[in-house]
């Protein structure tokens, strides 16, 4: 652990020296700071690829790519941690995750993808404003034992999203062939909410079965631990 910390400190120190050496000729702190930020921005651009997209500010495009990079890194890291050969080598797992994420952002985030993410009413924004409340409402409503309360809640939730889709329909028009209007996402969320009303019993039973299986797995682990203790 101490060796790893020393290596990290050495790496940070060398990186800092490179940046300082690049801007040592600056006449003031303001010039130095500006040069440092410009250099950092150029370094990020070099890693994440071209940010010149027609009709979009380069800073916004860079920010969008950075968000995609963070998201990809998190997803790849979770996947890599599940691979047995990387479980005992966390540093290699981080390196693999970084390389895959950088390559993906640099060569996959084309102009069309940036526009897809970064529209004034972007797909990502509409998806997040739909998905996150959906997850929260799902666990909130499914916590009630009364099926009437759950069904009324889902009907209200579906009506809200149908209303959002209707009221914002003209504002959410896009030039995307697969998704000509982002209001369809709201309508889809509303339709799913109404489907949950009809399948309330099946969903409830599935959740109960999942809870029972977790309890069984936990009891099996406890029994295995007790047997192991007896053997020892």
Number of helices: 10
Summarize the main sheet.
none
Low-confidence spans: pLDDT under 50, at least 5 residues?
23-27
Query: In percent, how helical is the residue content?
Result: over 70%
Euclidean distance between termini CA atoms: 31 Å
| Oligomeric state of shown chains | single chain
Mean pLDDT: 70
The SSE string, one letter per element, is HHHHHHHHHH
Class from helix and strand fractions: mainly alpha
**Rg result:** 25 Å
Tell me the strand percentage band.
under 5%
How many β strands by DSSP? 0
What is the 3D form? Answer: flat
How would you portray this structure in words?
This protein is mostly helical. The protein has a domain of 80 residues. Helix 3 packs antiparallel against helix 5, helix 7 packs parallel to helix 9 and helix 8 runs antiparallel to helix 9. The radius of gyration is 25 Å and the shape is flat.
């Amino acid at each position: 652990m101490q060796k790893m910390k020393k290596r990290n400190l050495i790496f940070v120190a060398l990186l800092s020296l490179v940046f300082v050496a690049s801007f040592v000729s600056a006449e003031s702190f303001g010039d130095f700071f500006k040069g440092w930020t410009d250099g950092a921005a150029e370094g990020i651009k070099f890693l994440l690829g071209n940010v010149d997209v027609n009709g979009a500010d380069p800073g916004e495009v860079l920010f969008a790519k950075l968000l995609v990079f963070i998201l990809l890194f998190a997803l790849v890291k979770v996947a890599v941690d599940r691979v047995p050969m990387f479980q005992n080598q966390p540093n290699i797992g981080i390196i693999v995750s970084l390389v895959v994420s950088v390559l993906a952002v640099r060569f996959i985030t084309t102009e069309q993808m940036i526009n897809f993410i970064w529209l004034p009413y972007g797909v990502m924004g509409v998806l997040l404003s739909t998905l996150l409340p959906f997850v929260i409402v799902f666990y909130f409503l499914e916590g009630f034992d009364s099926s009437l309360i759950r069904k009324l809640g889902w009907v209200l939730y579906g009506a809200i999203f149908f209303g959002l889709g209707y009221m914002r329909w003209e504002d959410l028009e896009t030039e995307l062939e697969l998704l000509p209007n982002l209001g369809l996402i709201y309508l889809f969320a509303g339709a799913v909410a109404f489907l949950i009303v009809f399948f309330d019993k099946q969903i409830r039973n599935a959740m109960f079965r999942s809870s029972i299986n977790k309890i069984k797995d936990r009891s099996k682990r406890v029994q295995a631990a007790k047997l192991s203790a007896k053997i020892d």
